[in-house]
Amino acid sequence: MIPTLKKIEEGSNDIFQVLNENRDYFYPYWHYHPQYEIMLIEKSSGTRYVGDNISPFKEGDITFMGSNIPHLFRNHPEYFEATSRKRAKATVLYFSNEFVNSDLFKRREMVAINELLQLAGRGLLIRGTSRPEVARRLNKVVKGNGAERLIDFMSLLHFIASKAEYEVLSSLGFTHVLDKSDLSRLNRIFDYLLKNFRENITLDEVAGVAHMSPAAFCRYFRERTNKTLITFLNEIRIGHACKLLIENKNMNISEICFECGFNNLTNFNIQFKKLKNTNPLAFRENYNIPAG
Hints:
- The chain is α+β, with helices and mostly antiparallel strands.
- The protein is 43% helix and 17% strand.
- Strands 1-7-2-5-8-9 form a 6-stranded antiparallel β-sheet. The protein has a 3-stranded antiparallel β-sheet with strand order 4-3-6, with helices on one face.
- The protein starts with 15 loop residues before the first strand and ends in a 6-residue tail after the last helix.
């Protein structure tokens, strides 16, 4: 059975745990854990799933996850090839849910930080010019110890709450109270879709993966993800299209359309415009790849 509750080892009195990821690819399953998590992507790219949000991730991204919010950082397909030399590197700071629920955070002086922690329950992406400073402060916490680490951590939370720009990822409508059987089933569904999104996937096929009737599957999937199956598939496909538009300059728009699983160019353009507020050609022309 695929594990869904990701165990984060911690001592009985520890507030923080640090994980330095350096592997072929990130943990490839939809999962959750009771600890809060701040993650800095040092080297890697792919698609991020947080609650009902689907968006690309890249080097330099910083995310802030609350307790038990389901999430997945799925690397691009080439990371899983046997001959791949790509690496997935990240610094992850976990801190305990018990600490966040302590009386300290109920004090009047903690109102802004407490609001930030509540929003983190939907997943946050740090944005804007403050991101390098958040990364610097995060690394200081990671490398610290004792009381100074705790002081630096509170300073980090205060900075994010008062100065940093961030985007709330998952919608209010997403219900993230999922049991282990739900997550096991969703992992089977997600794994199937992520491996086969280039193909002509039918509702009957995916319902079969979930061992449900098509009608029951539609209700189940909408309740658990806040999306229809076709919306979810389109977001995966458009995300892959963006990657190809950026990295494969020799592929024309029509080739990318079919490579991503769309069966006609008109629908591809409509769905791309709907999700990205521009057309594929303009996206390619306007995308600025950072130097270095």
